[in-house]
Design a protein that fits this description.
With about 140 residues, this protein is α+β, with helices and mostly antiparallel strands. The chain has 2 domains: about 90 residues, Orthogonal Bundle (Arc Repressor Mutant, subunit A); about 50 residues, 2-Layer Sandwich (Dna Ligase, domain 1), CATH 3.30.1490. About 50% of the residues lie in helices and about 20% in strands. It has a 3-stranded mixed beta sheet with strand order 4-3-5, with no helix packed on it. Strands 1-2 form a two-stranded antiparallel sheet.
Amino acid sequence: MTSSTTDLRERCREQLRERGARCTAARLNVLQVLAEHGGHLGAAQIHRRISEVGGHVEVSTVYRTLERLVELRLVHQLAGNAQVSFGLAMEAHHHAVCTGCGAIDQIPVAAVAEVMRAAASATAYRPEGLVLSGLCPRCQQ
C-alpha cells in the first residue's frame, strides 16, 4: 500500500470516527474508491472497482454501505439520466450534469457563490446544492 493510499484510508477513518460510525472494511473501501475516482460513480461501478483491486464485498453490501454513508453525510447521491451516482461529500461542491451522456462534473463552491446568494435572496430558500444541467463539451461536438 502506498503512503498516499494509507493517508487516504486514515482520512476516511477520521471522518467516520468524527461521526461516531464504525470503520468497517466496506465503508473504507467505498470511500477510498470514491476519493480515488474524484467524481461520481454508480453502486455497480463502485462494486466493480473494489473487486478489481481484490476486495471481497457483495453488491448488496455496497448498496447498504452507500445508504449509511449518505446518512452520515460523507457521501451524497445524485440522480441523473435514470442513474443514481454517488460522490464524496467531505468537501462542499456543486454539480454539472450532462443531459446528453449523463456525465457529472463538480463545480467549486466559490464559482457559484454569488448565484447561490442571489437565489437565496430571491426565493427565501436556504440552498444546499446546485445542479446545473446542460451538454458537456464532448456532447456539444
